Structure formats: C-alpha cells, structure tokens
Amino acid sequence: MKVYENISLKSHNTFGIDVKARRLVVVGTDEPLPALEEPYLILGAGSDVVFTRDYPGTVVLLDPAAADAVLQADGTVVAPAGMVLDSLIQWTLERGVYGLENLSAIPGTVGASVVQNVGAYGVEAKDVVSRVEAYDLRERRTVAFSADECRFGYRTSLFKGEPGRWLIRRVHYRLAHTFEPNLTYRTLEALPHATAAELRQSITDLRWSKLPRPEEHGSAGSFFKNPVVDESVCRRLKAEYPDMPEAHAAEGGYKLSAGWLIDRAGWKGRTMGRAGVWPQNALVLYNTGGCTGAEVVTLAEAVRQDVQRRFGIGLEPEAIIV
Ligand SMILES: Cc1cc2nc3c(=O)[nH]c(=O)nc-3n(C[C@H](O)[C@H](O)[C@H](O)COP(=O)(O)OP(=O)(O)OC[C@H]3O[C@@H](n4cnc5c(N)ncnc54)[C@H](O)[C@@H]3O)c2cc1C
C-alpha cells in the first residue's frame, strides 16, 4: 500500500482538472484496506468524473500493476479491477478469447466498467460479465455477485446505486474460444474487417475520429445520458423534427440522442470559459486548456437548461460530479 498526502489528481482524471486530494491511498487487488474515515472516494482512471474542488478526504485507487488476468479452461477470464480495460481486451485477443472487442478503447479500468456498465458499438459490460468480486466496506467482507445480482442498467448497476459501499476487486468474463463478430451496430456493417484484431482496430480508429483523445483534450467522453421518453413525447418531437433519431429503449419507451438535441440547440463547437462542446460530437464536453470543474458544470447547466427550454427534455449527466 502506498499513501500520498496533499497530492494533485490532475493525472488521475481524464478531464485533466487540477485539484488536490488530502490523501491518496493505492492498494493491491487483495491487500486489506486501511480503516477509511468519511469522506472517501474510490477512483479508477478518473475517466467519468469531474472534480469541482479539492477532495477533502481519502481517494482510494487499486494498483493497476498489482496483478494479472487469468484465463480458465472454459473461456472465463478473471481480471483484477485496477487493470486498464483496453489492456485486458488486447490481452484476451492475444490468448484467443473473444467477446470484448467492441469495447475497445473505452478509457478506464475493469472495475469501473462494471460500476458504469460501459457500452459501445452494440455491446455492454453486462453482456460479458459473469461474476463480480467486491469488498463490502460497510460489512467489511468480500461478496461474490452473479451478473443478475449486479442489477445492470443503462450506464448503471447495483454498485453505482450504493456509492462508497463496494470496492470491486475482480471481474469474471464469460468469453468465447471462437470469434463471432458482433456487427449489430449500424456503422460496423460497413467496416472492412475479418479478424478480431481488425475489428478492434476499426473500432479504435472510429472512436478516436469522433472523440477527443485524453492526452490532447480532457473530457469524460459522453457527458450526458441519452434520454428515455414515452411514446407521446417521442411522437410530439418527431412531428416537429422529422429528422430526429430515435430508437426503442431496452427498458421500454424511446431512447433519444442527447448529442442530436444538443447539436440542434446550436451548442456544437461553442465554449464557455475554458470548457467547450466538442466540435465533432455535441455529447462531449471538453477542457479547452486549464479549465476547472466549475467551468465544466456551468457549461453543462447552460446546455441542460437550453435543451429543456427548446425540447422539454431534461438531460441527466452520465459523468459523475465530485
Ligand atoms: C474519451 C472518452 C470516451 C469514453 N467512451 C465511453 C463509451 O464509449 N462508453 C462508455 O460506457 N463510457 C465511455 N467513457 C466513460 C468512461 O470511460 C467509463 O465510465 C469508464 O468505465 C470509467 O472508468 P474509470 O476507471 O476511469 O472510472 P472512474 O471515472 O475513476 O470512476 C467511475 C465510477 O466508478 C467507481 N469505481 C471505479 N473503480 C471502482 C472499483 N474498483 N470499485 C468500485 N467502484 C469503482 C468510482 O467511484 C466512480 O463512481 C468514455 C470516457 C472518455 C474520457
């Protein structure tokens, strides 16, 4: 275990916001946790958080270098929660097990990918996760969850609903020894690929053509969730905006494109202070250079209010404001 006092979190969040933590504790996957006083925050790679002020308590990180993934004979892969998800995907392809390719290049760690039920290009974490080992910080014991018990939803899970209670330590994935590409996402049908490695590369290239690379411009990826509305709301908007994209939502109702609404409201490429709306993708708020979390939140609120006023739709952030 390593402990740092009064340390900058700038390199621990992809927005690149320069705040300090009073204490930062880095623990190994199986290392006992020290007693934690409130407030504390479990952090992965910080790719879905916006820090709005210095963190007054302890930030707990799982050491990314602490352990390796393990491949079992039945294709189950057991990965430590601190491992970078994209490194795990490369690791699985090198060992001839498949199912994670479509999640390539999503920033962040294995543990957070379960908390957030990350998804891209037709696959969500819930489609491949079979078991989660988590430490209950309230009861101080380790609990194993089946995929059903994780209560996955759109960018959410049981773990997201109880912040601070669970430290995910290991994730089990049920993967296949035979590669069967998942091309259900429309854009993928047109992509040339034959092997899993080629599909992974195509997806990686596609992602970075639309998203700011964290090493160039800070962001948390999609800042807002796509809103889910009932049929009457969808029909009202469709009558006024026939070109508005919509899709049936798995949870019932219709999923609208938050990016389309923000773009249509004229926000693409606009900046407020040092925060901006990414010119290639209106769903992404980004750091134009040296921005604070407060500037991001001010821009997000202006966007949210404008979308509410124009379309009667309330956007909810996907990013976690700390
Ligand atoms: C450029 C860019 C593109 C992105 N694209 C996508 C995308 O396509 N799809 C998508 O779903 N997301 C996307 N994201 C969001 C982000 O990558 C995911 O939410 C990712 O899972 C965050 O991982 P992290 O390790 O950085 O988590 P963090 O941001 O550090 O933490 C996220 C949450 O998980 C909790 N947490 C982290 N680790 C643990 C743990 N071990 N145990 C318990 N709780 C934990 C934290 O407390 C926090 O609540 C994108 C982000 C960026 C910057």
CATH class of the largest domain: Alpha Beta
Structural class: alpha+beta
| CATH topology (fold) name of the largest domain | Uridine Diphospho-n-acetylenolpyruvylglucosamine Reductase, domain 3
What is the β-strand count?
20
CATH architectural arrangement of the largest domain: 2-Layer Sandwich
Q: How would you portray this structure in words?
A:
It is a single chain. By secondary structure, the chain is an alpha+beta fold. The protein folds into three domains: 61 residues, Uridine Diphospho-n-acetylenolpyruvylglucosamine Reductase, domain 2, CATH 3.30.43; 138 residues, Uridine Diphospho-n-acetylenolpyruvylglucosamine Reductase, domain 3 (2-Layer Sandwich); 109 residues, UDP-N-acetylenolpyruvoylglucosamine reductase, C-terminal domain (Uridine Diphospho-n-acetylenolpyruvylglucosamine Reductase, domain 1). Helices cover 23% and strands 27% of the residues. The chain is built from eight helices and 20 strands. The strands form six sheets. It has a five-stranded antiparallel beta sheet with strand order 6-7-12-10-11. The protein has a four-stranded mixed beta sheet with strand order 1-2-5-3, with no helix packed on it. β8 and β9 form a beta hairpin. The chain is globular, with a radius of gyration of 20 Å. The two termini are 24 Å apart. The mean pLDDT is 94. Bound molecules: flavin-adenine dinucleotide (FAD).
